[in-house]
Amino acid sequence: MAPHIVARATEPFFTTKPRGEGTGLGLAMASGFVQQSGGRLEIDSGVGRGTTVRMLFPILERQADEFAPKTAPTGYQTRPLDNPTAPPLVLVVGDSREAAAMAGEALQDIGYRVVVAHSAEEALQRFDEAHGSGDAFKLVFSDVIMPGGANGLVLAKHVADRDPTVPVLLTTGYNDEMAIDGPQPHAMDVLGKPYRRSELIDRVQAALRRGARTGPGRTTSDFGHAQA
């Protein structure tokens, strides 16, 4: 790799592959894992001579069980809306299977139930099935740019038509293609890419609280508009 590529190789969503053939998450996730473990990731690369990636971890002299948590882990907690025995059900939508899986796992790790779809059409099918079964989605988290006939904005409109109390959190790295400077429907928000895991969780929890305040039988028009 050329030096300017090496400098950006661990950036989330950075890739030199054609669109649809790479997510730019592989080295980013590896680098994040190494840093969380107190180590570092090094890349030695040159055009025509190949690439070597080293993951360096610190050596611990004490037994690993000395570092085991003595109490329950702290951090993000789920926020049940209606039934504490049934954590909120979230629909994650994205054409990138890796990115959608990563978002879904982050939400599952804090206790939410997650269903993943890879197109707007599949998402609407899952949405209708869940609502028909009585176990309705509490939030939809979707990419804006997706292949096929419907993008995330179209999906958000269909969700609002079906149930205006379900908040929609959209994510995109193409903010210049969206009119997000003006007012958006109350139940829709936009999270820019790349985002941190903590940012995703914060925004999802905020959207769930907003949806809980909307409540059954009330529409988004009862609450005005919110800026994205």
Structure overview:
- The chain is an alpha/beta fold and 228 residues long.
- It folds into 2 domains: 3-56, 2-Layer Sandwich (Heat Shock Protein 90), CATH 3.30.565; 89-218, 3-Layer(aba) Sandwich (Rossmann fold).
- It has helices at 3-6, 26-36, 97-109, 120-133, 152-162, 197-214; strands at residues 40-46, 50-56, 89-93, 113-117, 139-143, 168-172, 183-185, 188-192, 225-227.
- A 5-stranded parallel beta sheet has the order 4-3-5-6-8, with helices on both faces.
- β3, α3 (97-109) and β4 form a beta-alpha-beta unit.
- The longest helix has 18 residues, at 197-214.
- The relative contact order is 0.11.
Relevant terms:
228 residues, Heat Shock Protein 90, two-stranded antiparallel ribbon, Rossmann fold, alpha/beta, elongated, five-stranded parallel beta sheet, disordered C terminus
Main pleated sheet: 5 strands, parallel
User: Which superfamily, in CATH terms, is the homologous superfamily of the largest domain?
Assistant: Response regulator
C-alpha end-to-end distance: 38 Å
Helix-and-strand structural type: alpha/beta
Total number of beta strands: 9
Tell me the name of the CATH class of the largest domain: Alpha Beta
Shape: elongated
Number of domains: 2
Rg result? 20 Å
* Content of β-strand: 15-25%
Low-pLDDT runs = 67-83, 175-186, 217-228
Helix segment count? 6
Q: What is the second-level CATH architecture of the largest domain? A: 3-Layer(aba) Sandwich
What is the arithmetic mean of pLDDT? Answer: 76
How are helices and strands ordered from N to C?
A: HHEEEHEHEHEEEHE
**Main sheet: which strands, in order across?**
4-3-5-6-8
Q: Write down the CATH topology of the largest domain.
A: Rossmann fold
